[in-house]
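Re: How this chain folds, sequence and tokenised backbone to follow

Filed under: protein folding, tokenised backbone structure, sequence and structure records.

Contents: The amino acid chain and a row of whole-number tokens, matched residue for residue.

Body of memo: The sequence and its backbone structure tokens, given next.
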Amino acid sequence: MLLDRTQIAELIPHAGAMCLLDGVLRWDETSISCVSRRHRDPGNPLRRGDALGAACGIEFAAQAMAVHSRLTAPAGDRPKAGFLVSLREVTCRARRLDQLAEELVLAAERLAGDERQALYRFAVTCGARDLMDGRATVLLGLLPP
């Protein structure tokens, strides 16, 4: 593993239980692959009652995008807050994440962008099962008033 949970927590603003990633498996200038076991955690803050709905996979993938953005930022750049502003072509093939025994793998590929925004394609898998995929637009920096 290239980065562990502690190192990830230093890169993104998601603290404590809200940091959903356990590791970075690989990354390069255009893509990242992360792993998580947090979908099985009864204390996961995204759970509702005893369930973690599959749509929460979007937040797992968004955190992978946030880590990628920080890892590929020019050296010395101040961190920029990222805001998920658009989702497109999202396909969800599961109802719940908490019932899955294997680790989640979160993959994201940056398709386009600049210092103000980024377009990512993302996928959430568990073992050989494709759970979710789609595209996300992230606004980097402060939202306009």
Notes: The chain has a mean pLDDT of 93. The longest strand covers residues 129-140.
